[in-house]
Amino acid sequence: MSAPRTAYVHIPFCHRRCFYCDFAVVPLGDKAGGGGGPGSASIDSYLEQLHAEIALSPKGPPLATVYIGGGTPSLLTPEQIHALLNRLCRQFGVQAGAEITLEMDPASFDQHDLQALIAAGINRVSLGGQSFDDGVLETLGRRHRSDALMQCCRWLAQACHEGELRSWSLDLIRNLPNQTLEGWCEQLEQALAVAAPHLSIYDLQVEPGTVFAWRQQRGELPLPDDDLAADLMASTSQRLRRAGFCRYEISNYARPGHASRHNRVYWSGAGWWGFGLGATSAPWGERLARPRTREAYGLWLTDQHQAVHPSLHRQSAAALPLDDRLLVGLRRHEGVHLLDQARACGWDERSCNRYLPALERRWTKALQQRLLLQEGGRWRLSDPEGMALSNQVLVELMCWWESLPADVVRSPSP
Predict the structure, then answer these.
(1) Helix/strand/coil (H, E, C) string of 131-142?
(2) What CA–CA distances, in Å, run from 229 to 13, 225, 235, 242, 394?
(3) Which of 65, 172, 258, 388 could form a disulfide with 262 if both were Cys (CB 3.0 to 4.6 A apart)?
(4) Is the pLDDT of residue 34 over 90?
(5) Which CATH number fits domain 6-268: 3.30.1330.60, 3.20.20.70, 3.20.20.140, 3.40.640.10?
(6) Is the pLDDT at 115 greater than 60, yes or no?
């Protein structure tokens, strides 16, 4: 396996936990910030831990992409972001032309902050807008409102137009309570009007332990039915395609030249570094998830000072299992080449000839329904039908994988 050139850094702090959120976050209150205000001591303490974790990692080649996510990383000051990037640079180096993304919340920055973050090294922004509708934002538990979102979009569009940012992305959530097709189409039109060159559109998932889960149990969360959900996805694909966007992954649409290089690493099956509370790394094939609470993360980090986890050393490298490669690869517009992926996992010709046809037979129905398309040895989900019903394809994949002998599914050393 080639050495990782991608790093994800998790900043868990946010003003408040949104009603749908089950991420590893630490709410600090609406007045919190990294510059000496409420919650700043917690932020400073965590950043110390984060710098220490990065310093414990084996040295590697220069990073081609860095993604600082959360939480709300824009709660940090530009100086703190700059120091974090410098820590990564000292440990790995950051290659010229690297994509450096920061997730930002509309309620956490102004134009001056944006300019300072750009000066600190950020060249791509992922903006957590979620909706342009004030009523929806309130239902979601978001702190910002549509006027603030529109203003942030204008600042980002201007910075991109003037060459200060390479790109920026806008997040929207679909399949929300009481959502209608007409209302969703209005959201898309507003997203196009603010000229975001990249859109990440996520379907609402009601996760256990969230406010939305509690409301659903009480019968207070009227979500779209399956037919409406399919219509919402189809209208999204059709409208954005007409506007010049490519759906390069199930949830991501971009104008030419604006696809996220960082996210494509995950979907390609390549390795990456991950740092911080709740983050997952897989530099050499084995996934390692950090603890999701501050106390447990601190104890884990203490253990790392004694002995760094084996998954972080190249000596323990193992090829990413074929099922993982296919699961993430099918999310992409280009899909997967079955034979090439199997060979990359160390399968010999005998195993390929014996076991891959069984998966193709399982996918016959999806192929007939045009949920899957086959072009030579490459298989990909159709858009929008296949991407809307991708679980039908993935279930067959998992059933096939579980039917294979143990010596076949075991990942060989590369």
Answers:
(1) CCCHHHHHHHCC
(2) 32, 6, 10, 20, 19
(3) 65
(4) no
(5) 3.20.20.70
(6) yes
Q: What are the residues facing 372 on neighbouring strands?
A: 381
Q: At what angle do helices 390-402 and 322-329 cross, to 10 degrees?
A: 170
**Three-state secondary-structure class, residue 52:** helix
pLDDT of 98 above 90: yes
Contact between residue 88 and residue 7 where contact means Cβ atoms under 8 Å apart: yes
Position with higher pLDDT, 350 vs 36:
350
The set of residues, in sequence order, having a beta carbon less than 8 Å from that of 282 and lying 6+ positions away, is 271, 272, 274, 288, 311, 320
Mean pLDDT of the chain: 93
Helix (H) or strand (E) holding 198: strand 198-203
How would you classify the pairing of strands 6-11 and 63-70? parallel
Contacts of 20 (CB under 8 A, 6+ apart): 140, 141, 173, 204, 205, 206, 207, 210, 211, 212
pTM over 0.85: yes
Q: How many residues does the chain have?
A: 414
Determine the residue type at 316: S
pLDDT of residue 248: 94
Domain ranges of the chain: 6-268, 322-409
**CA–CA dist 309, 111 (Å, integer):** 41
Question: Residue 334's closest CA among 246, 233, 255?
Answer: 246
Cα angle 341-369-397, degrees, rounded to a multiple of 5: 35
d(CA 129, CA 245): 19
Average of per-residue pLDDT across 236-258: 96
Which residues are bridge partners to 169 per DSSP?
A: 126, 198
What is the distance, to the nearest Å, from the Cα of residue 282 to the centroid of all Cα atoms in its chain?
15
265 pLDDT more than 90: no
Q: What is the 3-state secondary structure (H, E, C) of 7-23?
A: EEEEECEECCCCCCCCC
